[in-house]
Amino acid sequence: MKTSETIISTLREVPAEAVIASHQLMLRAGLIRKLGNGLYTYFPLGLRAFRKVENIIREEMDAIGALEFKPTVVVPGELWRESGRWETMGEGMLRIRNRVDQELVVSPTAEEAFTALVRDELSSYKQLPIIAYQINTKYRDEIRPRYGVMRGREFVMKDAYSFSADQESLDEIYNRFAAAYRRIFKRCGLTVIPVRADTGAMGGTGSEEFMVESEIGDNTLILCPNCGYAANDEKAACAPDEPLTAEGIPPTATQEPFAPIDTPNVRTIDELSAFLKTTSQSFIKTLIYKVYNSELDLTKAPGCANLTRVTDTGGAAAYYPESFFAVCIRGDLDVNEVKLAAALKASEVELAADFDVERITTAPVGFAGPVNLIHAPVLADKSVMAMHDAVTGGLAKDVHFVHVEPLRDFTPFMIDDVRTVKAGDKCPHCGGEFYSRKGNELGHIFKLGYKYTKAMNVTYLDENGKQQTPIMGCYGIGVDRSLASIIEEHHDDNGIIWPMSVAPYQVCIVPIKYEGAMKTAADTVYASLMEKGIEVLLDDRSERPGVKFKDMDLLGIPVRITIGDKNLPNVEIKMRNQNDAQLVSVTEAACAVAQIVENELARYRA
């Protein structure tokens, strides 16, 4: 391709709206242009790089036996009602109605669509396993799209879905995807950190995210320097640690009954610590949470007898649109709301409004506690169960209880790990001290289990002629986000430094002037490289050499061949990621560059 035949629309100034390197460089290099808030158009050079990433993903999916489909982007809303997610996905899902008043969804994800497609085709165990995938457009109505294509409203994802006869088959396919993802990211030149993760709105059990470190990451990674444990803080667990008294020793069980004490104008943990001359680790902090769409069975839970329970059509799990829980945790720790939502099988949790807190605790805000609480079930973090002789809110103004013993003085409705793990906590596997990093998710693989196949009534006949339900897995990669992350990892002050495997062009030829002997040499090398199958961009513009060099550095083409009168019959070959150049004769240039390209591609395939 010659520059005169494509669009080179570089910018010298950094656009004011762009705050991260990938967004800045994609705009400056003319790879993308903004069409609307969170909506971006790929220009030809950007689309070439995008297709390279897409094709790497496609090759690796095909290699593990996944079959590519092309479903519609707009999906009937009735499928989402079948799965039970019509009401629980939240405002991020774009719902529309057509002219005949049919409910439709602009797909944010495709579990429902693929489950419905497989349901209509599956009849026998002989057809299993089925591994289907698509590379398709998605839409999520982000409340605050930002960072260019890193977090847009419209984006492209590869999402795959497996349907298996049993857990063993699911595990084997899951491991295939895990290995394929590692190959994909290596071929893209990305350094990823696989971490344990929460399954979120997708549901399911086993889950692994593939993260890249990023200063503007949406996720906090919890990492162990000793054994390699890595988890998103939404999922991370830590080794249990004993609370300590003001004297620095673990508390012991007390035989004294719990008793009220006056704590006038004392509400916060810090105020209580000062008032009672102890540490925050002696307090059981109780927070009242409003819970949305919990699928737990709360028929026997305290305070839940009159709650409304909804059962959707199609066999989806019954759920409570709204409920309240009292969540107890050690005073120096924080509740992880993602863990909490997962424990409660809820779509969302939030701290209850003051009037709900006062209604449930029969006390002003600041005096909640689990002892004698009857208007909401108690969920206790595991840290609470290691506490003794503790202090809690007394369910009355200016009152707290002392000498509280968990299980003796209150019995939680459920016990779970809802603690936010932080740097400095201990690894549950080796005892090493955690450190943390910010990260962005590029890929996520789930073991979904039967969540969708049961809700949407997918069945097949096994070898004995009995009706069975297949078990599912789900496997996603963000294509746009992966492309942006490549730029985040591979750039310098002058522009992008593309890995050879995903560069829009592998080589650029820059004649100082595209005329005379320089034009003849440029055309000769260009033709030779084209014959060898090398993707080459010839800069035939009538621009100053400095402009050409700056543009090619900004675009990040891996190999630059400079042709000038002073060096002919030699040309200069320089790698974008190196400072030094080498002189090679015009007749040898194509072979030398082709070898460089092949060596670089092999490095990413190895």
General description of the model:
- The chain is of the alpha+beta class and 606 residues long.
- Helix content is 25%, strand content 27%.
- It is built from 13 helices and 31 strands.
- The strands form 8 sheets. Strands 3, 7, 8, 9, 10, 11, 12, 21 and 24 form a 9-stranded mixed β-sheet that branches. It has a 5-stranded mixed β-sheet with strand order 16-14-15-17-20, with helices on both faces.
- Strand 1 (32-36) and strand 2 form a beta hairpin.
From the structure above, extract its key features.
single chain; 606 residues; alpha+beta; 9-stranded mixed β-sheet; 5-stranded mixed β-sheet; 31 strands; 27% strand
Question: In a few lines, what is going on in this structure?
Answer:
This protein has 606 residues and is of the alpha+beta class. 25% of the residues lie in helices and 27% in strands.
The quaternary organization reads as: single chain
Distance between the termini: 29 Å
Share in helix: 25-40%
Mean pLDDT: 93
Q: Shape, please?
A: elongated
Break the fold down into its secondary structure elements and pairings.
Elements lengths: L20 H8 L3 E5 L2 E4 L1 H20 L3 E2 L5 E3 H7 L10 E4 L5 E4 L4 H11 L8 E10 L14 E11 L2 H21 L5 E4 L10 E7 L5 E5 L6 E3 L26 E4 L6 H8 L7 E11 L25 E11 L6 H7 L4 E4 L2 H8 L16 E4 L8 E4 L5 E6 L9 E3 L18 E15 L1 H5 L4 E2 L5 E2 L2 E8 H11 L1 E2 L2 E2 L10 E5 L4 H16 L4 E3 L6 H11 L3 E5 L6 E6 L5 E5 H20 L1
Parallel strand pairs: 3-7, 15-17, 17-20, 27-28, 27-29
Antiparallel strand pairs: 1-2, 4-6, 5-6, 7-8, 8-24, 9-10, 10-21, 11-12, 11-21, 13-19, 14-15, 14-16, 18-19, 21-24, 22-23, 25-26, 29-30, 30-31
